[in-house]
Amino acid sequence: MKRKGRLNDREILRAFDLSQRIAVRLVSVNIRDAIKIALRFNIYAYDAYYLQCCLENKLPFISLDHRMCDIAESLEIKVVK
What we know:
Layout: H1 9-19, H2 31-41, H3 45-57, E1 61-62, H4 66-74, E2 79-80
Parallel strand pairs: 1-2
């Protein structure tokens, strides 16, 4: 974000500080099903893991990546933009 001129140093540090308030819970993900998503939509497995996590745990998908949001919606995952 800095290289693209979207955020300055202070804003980057503030964003990091805010991100530390987000509650995190580690969960298992069915890797085989995630890989199927990656293959179906020609996306990185890493991205597919997030989508699979949402499916398995009935969680919304949060992203600024429009393509990933479209894929999530096609999988009937609620998207928060």
